[in-house]
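ok trying again, last paste got cut off:
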Amino acid sequence: VQLQASGGGLVQAGGSLRLSCVVSGTIFSTKTMGWYRQAPGKEREFVAQISNYGTSNYADSVQGRFTISRDNTKNTMYLQMDSLKPEDTAVYYCRMLTRYWGRGTQVTVSS
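nice, full thing came through this time. structure:
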């Protein structure tokens, strides 16, 4: 199983980014997927999760600003991030619960 995250970058506060996570080696449509992030000097934290049925939930810190989605025809999960804040700066990781992690993608939000 492989998870490949992409879409990170540098953006100004208030801007938007969309992260993607392409999954291979498994039946993607049956898996619950999630996004996590780790800021410098902090522990990795939960950002959002989407079940195989499409049910989603979010960390309080991103609720209303981030949207998680998936396209089972493309074996891909997305994270649309709007109204970005400097405190959203982190390495973002995709996860296939509970066992697999992708390499991170850096998101940097400047003030």
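cool. The CA atoms of residues 8 and 50 lie 20 Å apart. The mean pLDDT is 97.
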